[in-house]
């Protein structure tokens, strides 16, 4: 502290204070957002490479703030997580997603499984199994209509308990995927012990694979490894034809990204599902 001028320390703590205040403000506003219906969901198609059919949808949370406009989940999910609000929000996401699925079905839209992202806190500190079972049953859907996306880091903290929870969610009939794969530190043997169905290769590898030999090798290795463990592989963040070609050559099962579609509103998604239904 001696090396820094007093002014710098002052400046630093001022910045901290601002960041802290911003977070507090966001926390309060996020609490209100749920009540005021400022949260909504978008749906991004996942495409099966073997036949080009829609294999599923990822549910992505959005916040339309009355003053600041659209706020990214990257910004507000961590705040919600820390404030414990993610539990309520996460439940709302689950409910809304399965309700949407049921509404589509009632309207004769050909539906596919919807994939919901779970946060660490939601997974570890709530009765996630009971919650999922109730939500799915109340909506009159089958658990197979629901896919859950978990991250590697979530299970690393508490591997035994995580594996147990995952097994119970899978017993319900839900499909489980490991999200953002490749960014964490899980070893092959660790992965083998996790009761999951799918790996989702992180966008960072996909986006570099046409210009970086290392990323390409990484993607190819993940796909080969996943297949040897009888896991399906999906690549996220696919934007370019070259990326698609590389993934296809490597034997990737599913693709998600702007190349096929951006996240869609429920209306646009219904149209997309109708248009791309297997004929
Ligand atoms: P994620 O689970 O890795 O979701 C994929 C992100 O990549 C989404 O960002 C999606 O819009 C974006 N994306 C998809 N295709 C492309 C592409 O081709 N190019 C690029 N550049 N981006 C693409 P989004 O919607 O901003 O969500 C960011 C993160 O926020 C998600 O990352 C997820 O970790 C979290 N998140 C979103 N919704 C929820 C939710 O309901 N619950 C929880 N716990 N987390 C959520
Ligand atoms: Ca995800
Ligand atoms: Ca991801
Ligand atoms: Ca990601």
TrEMBL record:
Domain of life, per lineage: Bacteria
Location of the EAL domain: 23-277
Protein name: GGDEF domain-containing protein
Organism: Massilia norwichensis
